[in-house]
Amino acid sequence: MRLDLTDLRATFAGRLLEDADAVAPFLTDWRRKWTGRALAVAQPDTAEGVAAVLRWCHANRVAVVPQGGNTGLSGGATPAVEGRSLVLSTARLQRIRALDPVGQTITVEAGVTLQQVQDAARHAGRLFPLSLAAQGTCTIGGNLATNAGGVQVLRYGNARELCLGLEVVTAEGELWNGLRPLRKDNTGYALRDLYIGSEGTLGVITAAVLKLFPLPAAQVVAFVAVPSPAAALALLSLAQQRLAADLTAFELVSETCLQLVEQHVDAARRPLAEPSPWYVLLEVSSAQGESAASEAIEALLAVALEAGHASDAALSASVAQFRSLWALREDISESQGAEGPTIKHDIALPITRIPDFIDRTDAALARHFPGLRLVVFGHLGDGNLHYNVSPPAGGMAKADFLALEAPINRLVHDAVDAAGGSISAEHGLGVLRRDEAARYKSAVEQRLMQAIKQALDPLNLMNPGKLLSAPDTIPHHASET
Ligand code: FAD
Predict the structure, then answer these.
(1) What is the pLDDT of residues 3-46, one digit of tens each?
(2) Which of 67, 89, 346 to mutate to test the pocket of ligand 1 (most atoms within 8 A of CB)?
(3) Which of 260, 303, 331, 454 is the most exposed place for a label (fewest CB within 10 A)?
(4) In terms of pTM, does the model score above 0.85?
């Protein structure tokens, strides 16, 4: 039976999309892996409007799927196929409420994009360091709900570490104002930290107070050839010692990744004459200016070359070179996607175990699934690898490749677990990793998580079937890109 939305239309001042064409973009995720259905899409333009929607949903026992930029990679923002839930889009929560350059904080509503926050901070001579390839579209609400990471976690931390306070609408539709710009606040349970990383399953984040930092005077990047992941780790240790807090990114890239980017991105140019099995992209930010940053990197590289941790390197000497070296790293996902279907693993490991993990897992995959290509890259500096798999270079039927997804996931994730790692470093669980996470979490941890869900959302109306199991609400598996 179709629910009567008349009350909802009348009770909040925002926009309610009901027309099939208007609703369609909210029903499929970024990777086009899941498609669901929804009663409607509500787009409130104030926190009070969000509260009105959630009160209506609570009274009518209607499930709510919060959605920001819809760039999430785990299916968390896609409604289930039954079509009984309401999508709550934060697209119209668009205000930057305050910016305090001395206190180094910015207060923004949930639907402001990450790029807009970065730009507002830069305009005030400050840095908001969260940075990821979807920043033009993803929202601060989504970044916090997934505890997003990106390329500067090594120096500044992930979204959780960049957030001081939150404003949240609870599952019952109450507005909690926790927008405190405090760096110290020991007054009981950290409710903020329950909502961060909860993927819309506990409440709707409507605004946040975020930390800002001084803008660095200069940033220089080096693209360094290294013989192995073990050598990359030795270079990381050396860089941490010599550059300390000026080291702002340390990314690992395999030769396979570089070849894919060369093949699919017209503007991509190899920065080094000779190929190498692995590369590191390292970024230095300096308050002392460009020549100080370049000199620090050159001194580091001289020691690394001498010790055999590196064999060659190219340094950026202009903004254009800085961008084109970074593009070699940022264009990997898209280039891999251009080759056909992919099996992705967003894993975290204790940093020192990464070389051994790569050796053993590469060998096990080659033994059990010969011919597949490994596309391995990631944020080595914070122990986060994107350990991805592509079909053989000669091609493979899509259905045959996707049939391997479950056994490959099992092999990779068992290896991650054995190494003391995590099967989701920064993309969250959504529906993609929900059931697998249950395999690797202890009974105690699962019970505590269920108890929090029960306490904050007793009717299970907030994004049901995401993060925690509820098998009858799994979205439809549409297609893999
Ligand atoms: P959505 O996709 O809309 O939602 C994601 C989850 O958050 C869903 O569960 C949703 O219900 C919930 N949610 C959204 N808004 C709210 C809210 N206001 N209150 C409560 N719950 C909410 N991620 C990284 O961590 N690091 C990367 O380097 C990275 N790179 C990416 C590159 C590309 C090209 C793409 C497409 C994605 C990448 N991602 C990365 C993943 C994605 O961008 C992040 O997860 C981002 O934080 C999601 O923000 P969003 O606004 O798009 O959220």
Answers:
(1) 778 888 877 767 899 999 999 999 999 989 999 999 999 999 99
(2) 67
(3) 454
(4) yes
